[in-house]
């Protein structure tokens, strides 16, 4: 049962209890008024209903000495009232012992928050790469939603780092992807252990969001072309990356050490980031951006079309569609993007 169904069912039961209690009070009060031939006040009749239903037993406020019908009416009120109390206690007990209720409520609130997010990323599937992707997105302050088939694997691997936005379901299912906000997502990571699953994820995502960037992982390099045909924008092979890293450790250890330190420094939290040039930056020169304001940022290159300009000069004129590449931290990245977008 889904969180929404559980909460709706609880609301229905609560409404039913309120309606039953109100019905007994109204019918009982009117009934005792009739039994007393109008001699008892409305307050006394209501009081008689309450003490009868509650089985307090203070005595007959509405006289029943010469009214067998009144006593039969009282028995029905008492039995019906006891039934309501039993039903109410059962509902309260269910709420108290149902450990999933709070979790379902949190999931429903999470789903509401996900529906308000846009420009986020989806991490689909589970593998050794998935938790590292999630930690990097969190560390660089990028909103994301994890979509995994089994949540317990994420909890076991990530513990307190488990994503706040996590949907348990098949990442190849269109309905599950819609719950994750696929139509509003900026990019998707197909990060499952199985290449076939990643291929299907690429196909499903591309059918739901034609503009999203899709980055997939491929264990078998022979599947790279298949993933690109399925809609992947880029495919990363852990084997190829591992081989490149081993080569770099051998021939350029200083560079590798620098990159490792940069990625692991949580205080400065530096990354190589890109900032697209939009209306705000178009027509300006590099010098007019006053990049010296950003103490933790270094301009590395500019990209125009397929051409790269490394360390662009101060008089370089920006055009719409250009991309500037900086070494910067998450806070200054957002400021740079805002200044250029």
Count of separate structural domains: 3
Uncertain runs are: none
The coarse silhouette is: elongated
Please identify the structural class as seen in this structure.
alpha/beta
Radius of gyration: 33 Å
% residues in beta strands: 5-15%
Count the beta strands: 10
**CATH 2nd-level architecture of the largest domain:** 3-Layer(aba) Sandwich
The CATH class name of the largest domain reads: Alpha Beta
CATH H-level superfamily of the largest domain: NAD(P)-binding Rossmann-like Domain
Largest sheet: number of strands, sense, barrel closure? 6 strands, parallel
Q: Can you characterise this structure?
A:
The protein has about 350 residues and is α/β, with parallel strands linked by helices. It folds into three domains: about 5-100, Helix Hairpins (Orthogonal Bundle), CATH 1.10.287.70; about 115-240, Rossmann fold, CATH 3.40.50; about 265-340, Alpha-Beta Plaits. Helix content is about 50%, strand content about 15%. It is built from twelve helices and ten strands. It has helices at about 5-35, 40-55, 70-95, 100-115, 130-140, 150-160, 175-180, 195-210, 225-230, 240-250, 255-265, 330-340; strands spanning about 120-125, 145-150, 165-170, 185-190, 215, 235, 270-275, 300-305, 305-310, 325-330. α1 (about 5-35) runs antiparallel to α3 (about 70-95) and α8 (about 195-210) runs parallel beside α9. It is elongated. The two termini are about 45 Å apart. The model has no long low-confidence stretch (mean pLDDT about 85).
């Amino acid at each position: 049962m889904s969180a929404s169904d559980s909460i709706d069912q609880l609301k229905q039961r609560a409404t039913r209890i309120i309606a039953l209690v109100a019905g007994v009070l109204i019918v009982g009060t009117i009934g005792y008024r009739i039994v007393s031939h109008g001699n008892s006040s409305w307050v006394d009749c209501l009081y008689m209903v309450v003490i009868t239903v509650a089985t307090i037993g203070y005595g007959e406020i509405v006289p029943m000495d010469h009214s067998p019908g009144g006593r039969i009416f009282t028995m029905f009120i008492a039995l019906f009232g006891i039934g309501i109390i039993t039903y109410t206690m059962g509902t309260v007990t269910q709420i108290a012992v149902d450990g999933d209720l709070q979790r379902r409520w949190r999931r429903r609130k999470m789903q509401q928050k996900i529906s308000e997010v846009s420009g986020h990323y989806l991490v689909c599937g589970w593998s050794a790469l998935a938790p590292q992707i999630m930690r990097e997105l969190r560390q660089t302050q990028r909103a994301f939603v994890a979509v995994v088939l089994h949540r317990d694997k994420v909890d076991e691997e990530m513990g307190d780092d488990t994503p706040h936005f996590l949907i348990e379901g098949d990442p190849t299912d269109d309905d599950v992807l819609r719950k994750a906000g696929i139509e509003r997502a900026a990019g998707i990571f197909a990060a499952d252990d199985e290449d076939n699953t990643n291929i299907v994820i690429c196909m499903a995502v591309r059918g739901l969001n034609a503009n999203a960037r899709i980055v997939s992982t491929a264990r078998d390099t022979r599947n790279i072309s298949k993933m690109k045909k399925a809609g992947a924008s880029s495919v990363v092979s852990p084997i190829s990356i591992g081989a490149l890293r081993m080569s770099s450790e051998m021939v350029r250890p200083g560079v590798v050490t620098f990159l490792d330190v940069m990625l692991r420094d949580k205080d400065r939290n530096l990354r190589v980031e890109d900032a697209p040039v939009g209306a705000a930056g178009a027509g300006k020169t590099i010098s007019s951006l006053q990049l010296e304001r950003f103490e933790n940022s270094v301009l590395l290159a500019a990209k125009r079309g397929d051409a790269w300009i490394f360390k662009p000069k101060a008089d370089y004129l920006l055009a719409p569609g250009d991309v500037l590449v900086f070494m910067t931290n998450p806070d200054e990245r957002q400021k740079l993007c805002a200044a250029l977008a």
